[in-house]
Amino acid sequence: MSSFVEIIHLVNLVIMLAAALLAVLFRKLLPSVIALSVASLLLSLEFYLLHAPDVAIAEAAIGAGLTMAIFIFAIRGTR
Fold it and tell me: Which of 2, 37, 63, 67 is most open to solvent, judged by the fewest CB atoms within 10 Å of its CB?
């Protein structure tokens, strides 16, 4: 059972790193913000897997939700 949990952690880490890398490599701002939000959402999943549900909820609400909304409003305001 322990090895299954380790595999989930590693897969989550790899996908999170890929999303963060895509956030840096995208040329347009909107796909970059979406990739950053996905990385933040995966970070909240990692917090939940580490038995910290309060931190996971805060990260999902603020890190993935509110920050993405603020970035999108800022992008829309600059055009």
Answer: 2
Per-residue pLDDT of the chain (79 residues; tens, 9 = 90+): 679 989 999 999 999 999 999 999 999 999 999 999 999 999 999 999 999 999 999 999 998 899 999 999 999 998 6
**How far, in Å, are 7, 14, 22, 60 from residue 11 at the CA level?**
6, 5, 16, 19
- Report the alpha-carbon distance of residue 57 to residue 72 in Å, rounded: 21
What's the pTM value of the predicted model, to 2 decimals? 0.88
How far from 29 is each of 11, 72, 74, CA to CA, in Å? 26, 9, 10
Residues 15 and 58: their CA atoms lie apart, in Å, by 21
Counting other chains too, the contacts that 14-22 makes at CB distance below 8 Å and 24 or more residues apart are: 15/42, 16/42, 16/43, 16/46
